[in-house]
Amino acid sequence: MTKLASSILEMIRMMIIMMFVVAALGSIEHSILGSWIPWKELYFLFLFTGNILWFLVLYRNRLQFSGWYRSSETQRKLSRNTTRIVMTLGLMLILTPAFITWLTA
Question: pLDDT for 87-99, tens place per residue?
Fold first, then answer.
């Protein structure tokens, strides 16, 4: 029962942290990109997806080791190559609104 309770608490912790991190990053990125390009509502989807990918890396490489749930056999950092790929995909998604505006202008 303690494993179940700790895993539920860890999921709640992860969702709360994710909401704050994604909202903060999205707000910063929106204000920066909004001053450069005409903003369309669809662009939030790109920012959200890119920020979720960045949060995945942050959580898997740092935050999962400081939570309530402990499982030594399943808690591993992402490999360096996987981290680079996911971070690059996230950056590409975040910069997609600028590229779309640049290509259609």
Answer: 999 999 999 999 9
C-alpha to C-alpha distance for 92 and 101, rounded to whole angstroms: 14
Query: Tokens 């949060």 correspond to what residue?
Result: 55
Contacts for 37-42: CB closer than 8 Å, 24+ residues apart: 37/97, 37/98, 37/101, 38/101, 39/97, 40/97
What's the longest Cα–Cα distance across the chain? Answer: 58
For residue 81, CA distances in Å to 4, 70, 84, 86, 87 come to 32, 25, 5, 9, 10
Write out the residue range of the structural domain in which residue 31 sits.
Answer: 2-104
pLDDT at 73: 67
**Residue type at position 35:** S
Q: Which two tokens stand for residue 31?
A: 């204000």
Domains held by the chain: number = 1
Report pTM: 0.86
